[in-house]
């Protein structure tokens, strides 16, 4: 696929596409061209987002799937007709079990003291479009007030160590930096667990967290501009580190563990 400035005008860069580019240019191309299949976990997160941030729009986006008996021919036919109908109406089907779980999560969250942060949002699901030098970038911010950008995340565990590890691996510090660049505001994460008792917590990143994200963002933009100028989007991992064999070492936690034993 040939990537040009015209391509970027049609498909501006985003946190998701930039994150893929930080792996390799080919990962970025794959992100642009692949069919995006939504997992049950992704659908659950989307429904929770909608019910928390824009509940009045639920019927404009989703329909809860009736309980079809798909083991019978009649049930299969009814299900197929249902799929054709919602496709015509541009709606997304939500299985009953996912909808009920989302409702439970949202009810628990709305009864928690953390719901006040949603109530304090001045804007919700706001899009921004901005230029980083010549590169167009867009994004959707879950919520904003005069001080913070808010992101609602569904997580398997809200334990501090799990959030610290998972958010870093998912490069959410890059997302925080992009949003901070977009409007100058800090980010606040509202995280909701996806298993009983569906507890929630709120995290505000440190200055170090944001600075690390900014370094990654600036480097990614510089690398992307170079890749665009040199037409290197067919490059793989070698774009970032050559093609020679890489020395594989123990992870830091394993070294520390071995040192403690000694």
Give an account of the 3D structure.
- This protein is α/β, with parallel strands linked by helices and 262 residues long.
- 52% of the residues lie in helices and 18% in strands.
- It is built from 13 helices and seven strands.
- The protein has helices at 5-10, 15-21, 25-33, 40-53, 58-61, 73-88, 96-110, 115-119, 160-169, 172-183, 207-230, 238-241, 252-261, and strands at residues 62-64, 92-94, 123-132, 135-144, 148-155, 186-193, 200-203.
- The protein has a five-stranded mixed sheet with strand order 3-4-5-6-7.
- A hairpin with a 6-residue loop joins strand 6 and strand 7 (200-203).
- Helix 2 packs across helix 3 (25-33) and helix 4 packs across helix 7.
- The model has no long low-confidence stretch (mean pLDDT 94).
Strand content: 15-25%
Gyration radius, to the nearest Å? 21 Å
* Mass-distribution shape: globular
Structural class: alpha/beta
CATH architecture of the domain at 5-37 and 112-224: Alpha-Beta Complex
Note the main sheet.
Answer: 5 strands, mixed
CATH structural fold name of the domain at 5-37 and 112-224: Lambda Exonuclease, Chain A
- The pLDDT mean sits at 94
What portion of residues is helical? 40-55%
Distance between the termini: 54 Å
The CATH class name of the domain at 5-37 and 112-224 reads: Alpha Beta
